[in-house]
Every structure is written in C-alpha cells, then in structure tokens.
Amino acid sequence: ASSPDEEWPEAEKAEKLARGAALKWASGVFYRPEKLEGLGHYRRRETQRNNSIQSRLKSTVQSYLEGVSAGLEQLRSAAQEVQGVCQDLGAARWALLDSADHFQGLQQMRKLMEEHVQLASVVQVLPQIFSVHEVFSHILQLLHGQRLLEAHVELMMVEQLRDDILSQLHLRGLSGAQATVLSYFSGLQDLNESLAKQLWEIVGSSLRLVREDPVLFVTAVRIIEREEKIDDALLLEATFLPPGRPKGWRQKFYQVLQDTITGGRFHAPRLDAEGPGLAKHLAALQKDIVSELLVVKDLMVQCVPAHYNILSVCTATFHQALSSHLQEILREDLDKQGLFLLLEWALRVYHSPEMMAHPDLLPEVDVSALDPLMPSELVDQTERRYVMKVKASVFEWMQRTLEVEFKEWFREEEPETDHEGFFQSALPAIVMQMLNENIQVASLITDSLQQKIYNMALEELEAFLGRLREALVQCGKEHQQDRAVPKYYISHLLAVLNNNLALSNSVSSLHPDTACREVPGSLQAALDRMQKKATQLLLEELLLDLQPLCLQLPSRKWLSGSQLVGSMCEVIDKYAKDFSRVRKPVFTLLLAESELLVANQYLRALLQRKMVCKSREERGQLCHRLLQDASQLRELFCGLGLDRGQQSLEAVFALRELICLKDPALLSLEVLGFITKYPDVSDEHISTLLDIRGDVSKEVRHVVLEMMAQHPQALPEGYRPIFSTILVPVPELPFCLRKGKCA
C-alpha cells in the first residue's frame, strides 16, 4: 500500500505552504517582547479554532459516507431486478418463436376482413352507382329550370361518390379501374360546365339582378362559396385530388365581374375624340360609374360575404379600366379642347363630389389608396401636348391680329383714341385677353399646367413683338418710298408706342403668382426693341423735316440773323404736339431723343461745314448767333417739359465758350474742361473748332492736341454720346507741282 503523501501530493504541498505562512505570521507577531504576554491567549484561541474545524470535517465526512453507503445498496438492488427482467425477456422470446405459425394465420384473416369491408361498402353504394345516369338527367332538368341550389346539391353528391371510389382505387394502386370510373362519370364534366355557364351569366348580369331579382345572384354566390370550401378542404388533405379540382370558382367570379364592368363601356368603337363627342362620352362614363358603384354599395354588398370586399374590388376595377381607357383615348390625335377635357376630367372631375367623392359613396369608396388615374409622367406629357396645341392656336390668332393691325396702319383715317385722347388700337387688349384666358383656363387643371401655359404665353408674346417690329420696319420702308403712304404714319407710330407701353404694363398681370410680378429679361428686351424701333422711325421723320433747314447753316445769311432756328422750332413744336398723344413716360423719352437729335444735327452742321472766322468781329458775331440759337432751342424744350439737366444743347454753349475765348493761349485749359465734360469728343472735333476760330497758331494747336493725348477720357456709365456720331471731314492735302513749293 502506498503512503497518503504519495496518493495526495497536493495535500503535502498545501501543508507545507500552511506551515510556512503560519511561521511567517508568528515571527511577525511575536517579534517584540511585549507581544509574548498574549501568547497563552493566542494558543487557547487557536486550539478552539482547530477543534471546531475538526468537528465540522468529521461531520461532513460522516454524511458523505452515509450517502455512499445508501447508493451502493440501491445499485445492488437494481442489478438484481435487471437480472430478473432479462430472464423474463428470454422466456417471452422463446414463447413468440413457438407461436409464429399462428400469427401468419391471423394475417390472412385480417386481409379477408378488409376485403369483406370493401365489398360491403361497394354493395351499399351499388344502388347509387346504378342510378348515376338517372341523377344526371334530373340535374340537367333542374339546371334548365334554374333550380340551381337543388341541382348543385345533387351534383355534389355524385361528385362525392365518384371521388370516394377514385380515392379507394388510388390507395390500392388500380389505375386501370380509375379510367373506367372516370368514363362512367364522364357526364359530370358537362353538368359542371352547364352549371358554371349559368353562374357566369348570372354574375355577368349581377348589377341588374341585384336591383331586379337578387335571389338568383345570391344563389350563385352560395354555390360558389360551397365549391370554394370543398376546394380548400381537399387542398388541406393533400392526399388525393379528384379530377377538375380545384375549380377556383371564386376567382372566376371576380374575373367575370371585372370583365362585365370593363367590357361594354371601356372597349367602345373609335369615338369622336374632338369636342362634343368626347365630352358626351366622358359624361356618360361619369354617370354610369357613379350609378353602378351606388348599386354595388347599397345592394350588392348585402348579397355577398364580407370577405369578398366587393365594393373595393369594383372600385379598383373601375379605376384601372378607366385608367387604361384614358390612355387609349390619348393615343388619338386630340385637339386642344379634347386634351383639356381629358385633363380636367381625370384630375378634377374624377375626384370631385360629382363622381368618386360623391356624398352617397363616401366614406366607403376611397380611391386615394389606389394608383393615380393618370401617372404623373402621362399627365406631364398630356400637358405638354395641350400646351403645343394652345401655342399653335395662339400663334394663329396673333398672326391674324397682326395682319389686321398692319392693314389699319394704311387706312385713310387716324387710329382710335382712349378717353384721355391718347392714340391706341385694340391690339394690346386682344393679345392680353387671349393670353390671360388661356392661363386662367389652365389654372382649372393644375398649377404645373398653368405655369407651362404662362411660360408659353411669354414666349409667344416675345415672338409676336419680333414679328410686329418686322411689320413696323416694312411699313417704314414703304413710307420712305412715298411719304404720303400711310397717310397717318406718325399717328400710327404713336399708337404703336402706346400699345407697347400697355403691353409692358399688362405683362406682369399674367403671372399666376400675384406676389411675383417681375417681367422676364428677354421679354423686356423685346418690348424695349419695339419701343426703340418706333422711336427711331419717328425721329427719322423729324430728321427729314429738319435736314433742309440744317443744310442752311452755317452760312453768312444765317450769321447775319436769319429766322432759320425759328423755322426749326416750328417743326419741333409741331412734332411735340403729335408726341403729346402718347403717355408721359414715352412722351418724355421722345422729347429727350428729339432734343438730342436737334443738338446733334446742329453740331454736325457746324463741324462738317466749316466756316472760318476771318476777324475778331466775325468770331464775336458767330458767338452771338450760337448763343441766340442755343437759348431759343433750350427755351423751346424747357417749355415742352424737358428739364435743362436732361438737355444736350449745353454742348452748344460749351462749344461757344471755346470760340469766344479771347486769349488762344488759354485754349488748352478750356479744352481740358470741355473734353472732361464731353469725353466722346475727338482730336478731329477739337481741331475743327480751332479752325473755326481762325486765330490759332500751329504751336497752340500742337499744345492743345498734346494735352488731349496726355489726358485720355473714358466714357462714364450712363453718358449719352453727342460727338461720337459726328464724323468730321478729312482735311484735304495741299496739291504740289513737281519741283515746286507747297502753298
């Protein structure tokens, strides 16, 4: 036997560790002498502690030994019982082997019993089998008499008989016998088809029957539900599925009902898609759909089980069929009226209280959960088609309006006037009314359509202004050939300006958003071009009347005091009276442009037809004439309402100061001030002015021109050019003979 230390090496290791720890602790505690007094007390405490631990260990070991003893006793008893069971099983095995022959006899008896039971069941159903064809005839009579429930009951009985026989044959694997049975019961297929045909005819007339004779419709639904339950039961068993199953008559019921809803009205022959024909068709659809949904809601719902959701099915069917029908109509080449009717009907009428939101249909009928009647892409495409049709119509109307306006310009009478006496025509009212009506009509459909029509209207108005401007140019060309044609050319030009102003003031009112009244830049530019062209033609007329007078200056006769400028004032005053027939913003513009034209022509005549002063007296006479002419013209325009600050005649006064300067040596300073005020003046202009003075030496001229070169001027923003359009003739070079001296 091995020692305990060899069996439990961990115990020896633990004891050594414990002794070492105890010695370490004791040496630490009793290191000092004063601690030795408590040694006896500590020894007693440790002794008590060891006794307590030993007592507990003994108790635990005793309990463990008692449990082990009880377990060993139970194992001994179980071993004895198992040994007894084994002996009994051995005896039973020998007994079974001795009785195996008797069991084979019992198996044969069981087979005979099963055959007897089957024969008994066949004997019981033989009368039913022999009467099958008679039952077929009776069922057929019931179907002809529309006694559908009775016919269906007998039909189910015959089907059950056939299915039971087929099930038994299927279990026994007798496929040949199954074919014989199916041949014998072949009449069932014809009866089923005959019954189904009558059911679908009833379902197809359901909307009429639920109002006239709901019993027949309810009968059909009951038969369909019976068949549906049989289908469900057979599918759950999943052992044997008889021929013709599942019938799926409930699904067929939905299909027939949907075909009935969509058949007659949504697959109509090609309809008149323009105007009244389409309107009548949509009105008929609206009336029929509402009335039939009311029938479904109030009558048909009561005739079918709740799980049919018949109202939701019919609503969805109408919705989908109508959506497809509208897409079919949109494949036609509809005019703008047809497209508008379709958009209005699909987007407004369909969801209004007049149709799907009818008070008698709510809240049961709700199409908001369905797909849109027209997909957003189709709506956008249809809106664009409508805009193109409207655009073509607007172009045609505007072209006719332009043609009428062009003819009006050549009539032998003045244009009409408003209550304030301003010239005008009906053109702005016609154009704006046409555009505004189309925009307002589009607002009845969607905001997007209204915005598209608004954008189209601005584009067409801009194009129309371009064509109107071309017509005005054409009229101007004809007038240039014969100033007597048109007779009231100036009056009609003034009417064009008033019309243009009216259009400019009215464009902002077309915008769908009242908070946004800004005129697009391209349209404003077209309006400005139109105004500029009419103003240009008017100024050309003024120029034609002023040119004969301007040709007479400068001259000695003019210098001596002729009434040349007085005649110019009379021409200007005459035109100003005509200009008063336009509204103030344009009138002020015409005055300013006329004043600029007069100043430009006056300076042009002075600079292009040089008159060199031969003496100081002649130079003083020229300064006096310039002062009188400029003052007379300035007072005229001031009297007409044009402020001095807006006039360009100040350039004549400034030019006079250069000519009146007594000391030529100071010309460089005066010219510097002049070019600072009028930065578009050139060296040629200044050189010509120096020539007019007649007393400027080459040195002074060189100093003046050098100073100008050293002080180039830039045109400030908003500056109205005066001198840049005046071309000064190039001085002639002196002619020299060969080997001679130039003069």
Low-confidence stretches: 733-743
Name the helix and strand elements from N-terminus to C-terminus, one letter apiece: HHHHHHHHHHHHHHHHHHHHHHHHHHH
Using the coordinates above, name the CATH class of the domain at 381-535.
Mainly Alpha
Q: What CATH architecture of the domain at 381-535 do you see? A: Orthogonal Bundle
Structural class: mainly alpha
Question: Kindly, what is the distance between the CA atoms of the first and last residues, rounded to a whole number of angstroms?
Answer: 162 Å
Textual characterization of the structure:
- The longest helix is centred in the first third of the chain and has 60 residues, at about 40-100.
- This protein has helices at about 5, 10-30, 40-100, 100-130, 130-145, 150-170, 175-185, 185-205, 205-210, 215-235, 250-265, 275-300, 310-330, 335-350, 375-410, 425-445, 445-480, 490-505, 520-550, 555-560, 565-580, 585-610, 615-640, 650-660, 665-675, 685-695, 700-710.
- The chain is elongated, with a radius of gyration of 59 Å.
- Among the domains are: about 110-200 and about 220-235, no CATH class; about 270-375, no CATH class; about 380-535, Orthogonal Bundle (Tetracycline Repressor, domain 2), CATH 1.10.357.50; about 600-710, no CATH class.
- By secondary structure, it is mainly alpha-helical.
- It is built from 27 helices and no strands.
Q: Secondary-structure map with pairings?
A:
Layout (H helix, E strand, L loop, with lengths): L3 H4 L1 H21 L9 H60 L1 H31 L1 H13 L3 H25 L2 H10 L2 H18 L1 H7 L1 H24 L11 H18 L9 H23 L11 H21 L5 H14 L26 H34 L17 H17 L3 H35 L7 H18 L14 H30 L5 H4 L4 H16 L4 H25 L7 H25 L9 H11 L6 H11 L5 H11 L4 H13 L33
